[in-house]
Design goal:
Strand order of the largest sheet: 3-2-1-4-7-6-8
Largest sheet: 7 strands, mixed
CATH topology: Spore Coat Polysaccharide Biosynthesis Protein SpsA, Chain A
Number of domains: 1
CATH architecture: Alpha-Beta Complex
Order of helices and strands: HEHEEHEEHEEHHEHEHH
Mean pLDDT: 89
Strand content: 15-25%
Distance between the termini: 32 Å
CATH class: Alpha Beta
Structural class: alpha/beta
Helix content: 25-40%
Radius of gyration: 18 Å
Number of strands: 9
Length: 289
């Protein structure tokens, strides 16, 4: 019940319903991606938008392969950064050496073995240097790259709902940062994450918690903030159950589908296993993979 209610509340103008206030980072409104009229630029299409993904080592899992394939299908220039080249990247993906961004000695993990902590540091580093779009390798793209550039030319951060709370937080799974500058929110995120002691990190410290805190403290640095349904339409606590359900449907404002790979791991479900064809993730995989 709470999901549909929140979606109604945090639309393009971020209004509140009577008796129910939703807290957003720094009190800023949340938006959705709506393509602008491009008739004046139809003769000069934009070059493909670069999307950066990271797969530290080994071959891509089925979910990671689907993520790459979905971005390719929508016209993106897919740059897959890695430290041990995967052998099964989809044709059209450009493999990039992660050592160009951070040395291999910087790789570290959470205590549960997850590389998500290092991924947070890497995403800020690559975006601060190159700009473009960042997506985690458990994010499926559903929006054409030219439509994205037209709808959000100045970039954006995305939000997610918090279980049991009447507020949202930012998530670092999708970041569009087209024009990096010294002192911007991504530069600050990198500087903080770069100096944080990995041994003291807890889950999300340099991801959602860091981005949300930076925007709360310095709202003037915030780009457009997107409603949860843009990139995190299925709540993390509903994954992977909702993704593996034939009844789950996505709304028209969904540009990306975050599949929350960590929740699959916690549920003991293999992201290399075939996706049941009649489920949400199975239907999507049939389009791209």
């Amino acid at each position: 019940m709470i999901g549909p209610v929140l979606d109604k509340i945090i639309g393009t103008d971020g209004p509140d319903l009577p008796g129910l206030r939703i807290k957003t980072p720094a009190g800023l409104p949340l938006a959705t991606l709506r393509a602008r009229d491009r008739s004046d630029t139809a003769a000069a299409p934009s070059p493909p938008l670069t999307v950066h993904l990271l797969w530290v080592e080994g071959d891509l899992c089925r979910l990671g392969h689907l993520a790459c394939a979905s971005f390719l299908a929508h016209g993106y220039d897919v740059q897959l950064w890695n430290y041990r080249r995967p052998t099964n990247a989809p044709e059209g993906v450009t493999l990039r050496d992660g050592r160009e961004i951070l040395p291999e000695t910087r790789i570290f993990r959470y205590q549960n073995g997850s590389l998500s902590a290092f991924s947070n540091l890497f995403r800020y580093a690559v975006l601060a240097r190159h700009g473009g779009l960042w997506a985690d390798t458990d994010v499926v793209c559903l929006m054409e790259q030219d439509a994205l550039q037209a709808a959000a030319p100045d970039g954006f951060l995305v939000s997610e709902r918090i279980r049991g709370k009447r507020r949202v937080q930012l998530n670092s799974n999708v970041i569009y940062h087209p024009a990096p500058q010294r002192g911007d929110v991504i530069d600050l995120a990198f500087r903080f994450a770069d100096g944080f002691d990995p041994a003291r990190l807890e889950w999300g410290d340099c991801g959602p918690k860091l981005l949300t805190t930076l925007v709360d403290q310095w709202p003037a640095l915030a780009p457009t903030l997107m409603a949860a349904r843009v990139a995190n339409p299925v709540d993390y606590w509903a994954c992977p159950r909702a993704l593996l359900s034939p009844r789950t449907r996505l709304g028209p404002d969904t540009a990306f589908l975050h599949c929350y790979n960590e929740m699959w791991r916690r549920a003991g479900i293999d992201t290399n296993a075939p996706f049941p064809p009649n489920t949400l993730i199975g239907r999507i995989a049939a389009r791209y993979d």
